[in-house]
Amino acid sequence: MLIQKCSYIKPGKGGERYLRYIATRDGVEIRAKPEPVTTSQQKLVQQIVKDFPDSRELFEYQDFVGAPTCANASAFISMALDCNVQSAEDSSGYLRYISLRPGVERHGAHGLFCTAGTADMGKVSAELRQHEGSVWTIIYSLNREDASRLGYTHSDAWRSLLCSSQAEMAKAMGIPLKHFRWCAAFHHPESHPHIHMMIWSADPKQGFVTHNGLEAMRSKLTNTIYHDELLSLYQEKNQSYQALMEKSRQTVAQLTQQLITGICDSPAVADKLLVLSDALKGVAGKKQYGYLPKPLKSIVDEVVDALSQLPEVGAAYDAWNALRDQQAGYYQNTPRLHLPLSRQKEFRTIKNAVIKEVDALRAVVPAFMESDMNDDPEPVEEMHVSDGTENLPSEFLPPGSDGTAPQTVYEQAQRYRTAKQILLNTKSPPAEQQMALQSLEQLWEEGYSIAAHLLGKCYRDGVGTFADTTLAVRWFRKSAEAGNDCSQYALGKLLLQLGRPENAVPWLHRAASQGNSFAQYQLGKLYCSGSDAPKDMAFAIRCWKSAAVNENAYAQFALGRFYLAGKEIPTDRAQAQYWFTLSAAGGNPYAQFFLERMEQFRDPSVFLAATRLLHHLGQIFQDTPTGQPPMLHIDRKRRRQLMEKRLALGHKANDHEDAQNQTGQRMT
Fold first, then answer.
1. Quick check: pTM over 0.70?
2. How many CB atoms lie within 10 A of CB 633?
């Protein structure tokens, strides 16, 4: 670890004297015996810490705290005074002590170096004496082990380091490279080798120091010093280092898998979700964490922290932190702060997941449950050649039949299937897809009505052509008017999505009257919520029962949930169990979840929400197991600027070309 201490000397306040001090300061010979710290040393250490609080960060102070010996006290006092000699007054007693302390050796020659090599001390002293601007003093220190291992035990290594880094240092201090001036001296005590560096600008009006600038300088030097070691570290991922990291990753992966597949039955989490659900009832507008009032944000944070108290989450978070600590140790002297889960930025997406899950508690059947619902069936193909005669020679056809009519229908079906195959094949050339669309339109003109349904799907989903909801509605309507219940349902659903419920509901009724279970289920939701149709719970139950009889697992689940909750209709646990059982048998895993928790005091919906949050957390752990930096985020203003640039280059607004930054990262 590289320690950096920075200060500055005001114009005319002793820059030349400090130069002479660092160039000619004698080394300190540490006593061989571990004698206890003397009273005078103890007082002086206390005084230094009081006057220069940041001296606590020095390696030498850590050594002294760990073992308060005379030698460690002497090393700390020397280093602390080195760091602050330009601020120490003669009357303070510091300079008197450093000049008179036991073990001082004087060598007589200076050790000053600069870009050109050994510095001309007289010339540099004269320049500093006439300099009217600020002079910055920086100390860089390594512990003995690192210095010996990495070769920084002599001035040539440090000079090479500073020469290779001076461009970045000049930039960080706002000094043009041609005006950047520096000199340094290497001090080689037994404990922590270090250099004293002085920096100034040939133009006294130039130069400044900021926290970010200092961090950039330290980062540059650290990366250079530890470059080979860090490179070796990453290369060793395929050797010994890989074994260590892989073990940690396996630990996180195992714990993550427990989250993804686990069940959350925590009453504490459930209670907080209910509190948040009640609080969100009066919130209008966008329900995202960033838009919520501060009191509601606090409740969301409480839910996240309650999740972190679950043993499985706590174990996964501890393992994740341990892995991050290993990486951060190369760049930070102090340990990483382990924040509560609600304050860890890598996991902030869980907050919106909490809000989304709580909002879903009030839904009849939450949207996530319908994600696997295949409610886009194909109409039955219009073929009446199922007797197998379509491929028979004419001599084998029934008497009086030349096969003309059935062969025509068969040929239409073949053309329909060929067009469909071309359109669904993403590798089909655009010209072939365009011909397939034209073939479907021709089939419609010939009276093959389900061709219109496929055209509606193509324009709705952008298959083989650009998405166009106007054309999708037109073609779905043609097929729906021909009596296809699948088209009637697809049309009603699309019109709902387009915000036209007054046009959608009649088509859903027509599809439901033909026994379409998806339309029956959708009508039940509409009349239950009362948002896009008059609220009528009795009619909603009838719709769901019709769909449930037609083996719609989602309608069966909705019935089970309402009979269990008893909010809109009287509670009937026997009915709830009956419908949940049918829904579970139909492959609905959520129905099985409810069946197993019907006897609990709390609504199973709350435990389901908590379980899904557990799975969300598991996914986040899985996505960021080693603390890798997140993908580049582009804010809205910058995204708009990039879009304007793309349009100026000739791109279309909706061409969906993957936008990448200069490093190849996908913009999110």
1. no
2. 10
